[in-house]
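tool=predict chain=A
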Amino acid sequence: MKRVLLIVPPTGKYIREDRCQTPIEKLKTVALRPPIDLMYSAAAFEQAGCSCRLIDLPAEGKSWDDLRSELREFNPDILAISITTPSLEQDVRAAEMAKEINPAIFAIAKGAHFNTLDLDAMERYSALDAVLQGEYEITCYEIGKGRPLESIAGMTWRDTDGKIRRNPPRPFCEDLDSLPFPARHLVRNEIYIRPDTGEPQTTIVTNRGCPFSCIFCLANQVAGRKNRVRSHENILAEMEECVSRYNIRNFLFRSDLFTANKTWVIELCDKIVARKMKISWACNSRVDTIDADILAAMKRAGCWLIAFGVESGEQEILDKMNKKLKKEEALNALKLTRRAGIRSSIYFLFGLPWDSPDVFETDLAFAKKLDPDFIEIFYVYPFPGTRLYEIAVQEGLLKDGEIPLAAYDSPAMPTLHLKKEELAQWRRRFLRRFYLRPAYILRTLSQLDSFSKVWNYTRYGFRQLMDLLSINDK
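tool=predict ok
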């Protein structure tokens, strides 16, 4: 029986879901999520007959020394590492450590970075034996089964002579019901919590793929353009397992676009209601894919929050990022969501090549008009393989081949009009002017209906207040 150690390296708290590679420690509304990709991979290894351990080192407060001890004690045959593009250089240290302890360990890494820069990574990091591309579950199953490496699609690997070999890409999985449920028995589920209540929260991957092609997004690269959905029964069975086995009743429905198919969503919601499941959940959506009917069904089924990628309040910027939206659609979506009794969180992007102070003033005015319950500002990240990366290089904002270390919570690059330091000032200024409005504060306090929410909002709000007051509003 092969032993497989799957790890999130101790290189910072990130969401490591390939499309979303977000460091969360400086962000305002993003909670730590379980490492769902590794949990799916572990389930596939177990299905192949392997013995697995999964450790989220940063989430558990563990160090490199803890990893070294684990490598020595468990003595794995395979080490699987979850990486992000900004943290790759540090993440690979785990493979180097493993090779120092036991050169025979087969060190593999997963991450969207390898969809385009697999050969570069293999050349740079000799401790890596293989990197995975695309969806990992079947690839991990075949590795666990001991299939010949040259026969395993979706992998770039190093043969016994040291030659780097790239196998054909793996087609996207059409039957998502065929995949095993994530290996939640291998993680400490209690450390992943819903921030407003402090209750355990887990991720349910409901569907994969997005038909849109925003210039900054990895969704098409990671999951394709076809919206592939799981059956309602398969999703419900996973949720019921979470409730009965792990006492988890709070969920994040993770998808590239949860509300892409109105009929599918409403039918799922009706079945949740029919089973009388006492759950709460959040999801993401585009503002042009909801209406009163779908929102009413979602509310009945326990949806408490929808996150919308609004991105910008300037129509010209939306058009340049190929968002395929009209800003007025965001106003309608927020109005309908509020009317349905569901809270809203909206995302804006800072640091696009065309951003300027005038754009940010327009964004702020639009954000106040939308008046969501929560707002988050991400600095856009130019992932290799995206149109945004090409534009950044063409405009001289990045050097060709440059991989910024800063991501999402810090500016990755300047714009044509602003330095990175100025972008940081604008983000904090924006958040201060949005969150410190008396009307917003009073509305938020009026919505707190339990002691735990009062405590969590107070504790969280004090930290954010100190941060927002640390810059002059000029």
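The mean pLDDT is 92. The two ends are 63 Å apart (CA to CA).
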